[in-house]
Amino acid sequence: QKVSVEVLQHLEHLALVDFRDAEGVQRLQKAIQFADQLHEVNTDGVEPMDSVLEDRWCLYLREDDVTEGNCTKELLENAREKVEEYFVAPPGNIPLPKLEEQETFLQGS
Amino acid sequence: LAPWVPVVGLEIHAQISSNSKLFSGSQVQFAAPPNSLVSFFDASLPGTLPVLNRRCVEAAVMTGLALNCSINKKSLFDRKHYFYADLPAGYQITQQRVPIAVNGSLSYSLCIDNKMSQMVTKTVRIKQIQLEQDSGKSLHDDTRSQTLVDLNRAGVGLMEVVMEPDMCCGEEAAAAVRELQLILQTLGSSQAVMAEGQLRVDANVSVHHPGEPYGVRTEVKNINSIRFLAKAIDYEIQRQIEELENGGTILNETRAFDSKLGCTVPMRDKEGKQDYRFMPEPNLPPLILYDAKSLPANMNHQQVINIDWIHERLPDLPSVKRKKLVEQYGILPEHSFTLLNEEGLAEFFESVVKQTQMKPKKVIGWILKDLLSYLKQHSLTVKESPVSSFVLADLLNLLEKKEISSTAAKQVLAELWKGEGKTPLEIVKEQKLELLQDQKELEQICQAVIDGHKNEVIMMVLG
């Protein structure tokens, strides 16, 4: 079952990835097929598990003390652009160009 | 024309009052140099992990209990993904699947026809309360076409309180939010000052005809005060009704309230519905809470949160405080509302009552009419009052002992507002406002008046 162009475009938009070429898309399709095998197991009435820790307590609770911060200089070291100790970003999200305007592989699909 | 039924629901974000952030040890403070209250985790540097702040959990449990919620003994954390410059991780840690508290209720009161003497109690259901991270702040610099990002707020703990669409207009929403604000402030779980962004409210509004399914709803954001909340909602209800009556349709969109124009305007690009790709937060195990029954035997106290322990220590909520004021002092219910609505006013009232022989039912008039109106006129808080409870009690005692008249008392009060440090008695003496009690003296004065106005007396005697 092929993944539709709309879904591929949606994924590229959501995760800011680029499937590049036919091989990339095929790899994705194979990955989905592989994961789909999970559906072969009947999980009716079974609670989903997202942690092997289950109900065992082990979420550590920290005391409400101030122990970090005050490292503006270090943090800004990584910034490509800064203005008076603020990080600089483009004005709002730059919308991705529509499919027709992109020069992606998906256009040809 | 068939009647329209407006439906209003609210999503409220309350900043948790804590020293440090939800998942890191950086400080929570309103005004500070940009990016000075930011840890490596808050800046989303690789290799950092979230560590849950105990105080934030307690705040959420307190709030859940105060709102009659069921506290989930096991709740989970999730990631909500979207891209924005003030969200460095590209996702927000929240509780989407199983929040910490669910199925509560909030009772609030409304005046019918603006008459405080006719109050009606309404209830709104609380769908859930969840713990989540706040984002940083974006400052838009349109001239240079850039956004400046300050992450001081990024990671501060929030309680999102979701209210079911049980409200029907701006007034109800405003009253519900006001009551929630008072509750949060009483609990201390949030200072809930809207002006400082500690309480943010988004409204979901739709209209439909009775008996028909609910209409398409819009989300209204950017509301900065309770007053604007009512305005924004009422405007949006009207806008939707007009649109539909003109044959138009309502788009499921997000709109911003423009306080200057008093209207709502479309806010976001129509990118289609947001897909947040929720997934469990892999770095946080489930949050387990206990009660007296389930308390584990051998566990470090510091690591255990006991819901019952917190329940026992909840302070009196506003509704209980009001009831007690009415019962203890014999004042009217609407009086108790006004007392609690002003920070420190109830305490001031009780303090005056303790220090005077005047009955509380009479004292309340002086508090609500004279004191409060003066404070409002001069935009002062109760704390800033130039007249202390001691001084006011002193004045009321003079009145009660009939040493001055009620009119004279108001005159003295007007003088006391100047805050020159004079005692009420000093002012009474200065302005010669003492009531004369001596019968003989009074007779003498009357006689003197009669003697001094012989003509008028003759006119009166003749009729």
Automatic annotation (TrEMBL), chain A:
Pfam families: GatC. GO terms for molecular function: transferase activity. Keywords: Transferase. One of its GO terms (biological process) is glutaminyl-tRNAGln biosynthesis via transamidation. The keyword Signal does not apply. PANTHER family: GLUTAMYL-TRNA(GLN) AMIDOTRANSFERASE SUBUNIT C, MITOCHONDRIAL. This is GATC amidotransferase. It comes from Melospiza melodia. The gene is Gatc.
TrEMBL record, chain B:
This is GATB amidotransferase. HAMAP family: GatB (MF_00121). One of its GO terms (biological process) is glutaminyl-tRNAGln biosynthesis via transamidation. InterPro entries: Asn/Gln-tRNA_amidoTrfase_suB/E (IPR017959), Asn/Gln-tRNA_Trfase_suB/E_cat (IPR006075), Asn/Gln_amidotransferase (IPR018027), Asn/Gln_tRNA_amidoTrase-B-like (IPR003789), GatB (IPR004413), Gln_synth/guanido_kin_cat_dom (IPR014746). GO terms for molecular function: ATP binding; glutaminyl-tRNA synthase (glutamine-hydrolyzing) activity; transferase activity. Pfam families: GatB_N (PF02934), GatB_Yqey (PF02637). Signal peptide: none annotated. Keywords: ATP-binding, Ligase, Nucleotide-binding, Protein biosynthesis, Transferase. It catalyses: L-glutamyl-tRNA(Gln) + L-glutamine + ATP + H2O = L-glutaminyl-tRNA(Gln) + L-glutamate + ADP + phosphate + H(+). GO terms for cellular component: glutamyl-tRNA(Gln) amidotransferase complex; mitochondrion. Belongs to the GatB/GatE family. GatB subfamily. Residues 347-462 form the Asn/Gln amidotransferase domain.
